[in-house]
Amino acid sequence: MTNVFPLSILSPMNQAISPQLIDEETISILRCPVTHSKLRLEDGFLVAEVGGLRYPVRNGIPVMLPEEARLPAGIESLDIFRQRFGGATI
Q1: How confident is the model at residue 13 (pLDDT cuts 50, 70, 90)?
Q2: Fewer CB near the last or first residue (10 Å), C or N of the chain?
Q3: Which residues pair with 22 in a beta bridge?
Q4: Gap between the Cα atoms of 43 and 6, Å rounded
Q5: Averaged pLDDT, 52-75
């Protein structure tokens, strides 16, 4: 049986709207489009193991667009992130 993880989707005001579900199998096949690394579920985001780019999950659907991801602390732009971590794999 596949495990299902509850997610709390955040509104623009950072308040939970409703719990959503994403299954473990889906997480296991997704990869960061920038670093090609595996992802882990953390606080309603899919977080790349390499670099820490954080992809939102909206209404139970992972939004895997680099432009929609949150950058890790200390990285000012997606271009800088790509220079530092682009193409890395784990």
Answers
A1: very low
A2: N
A3: 5
A4: 10
A5: 94
Do the Cβ atoms of 51 and 40 come closer than 8 Å?
A: no
In a domain, 64, yes or no: yes
What are the residues facing 61 on neighbouring strands? 58
Domain limits for position 22: 4-85
Reference 43, options 12, 25, 66, 20; nearest CA is 20
Q: Give pLDDT tens digits for 14-58.
A: 444 334 578 889 899 999 999 999 999 999 899 999 999 999 999
At 49, the amino acid letter reads E
Q: What is the pLDDT of residue 5?
A: 54
d(CA 1, CA 46): 22
Alpha-carbon distance of 89 to 19, in angstroms, equals: 31
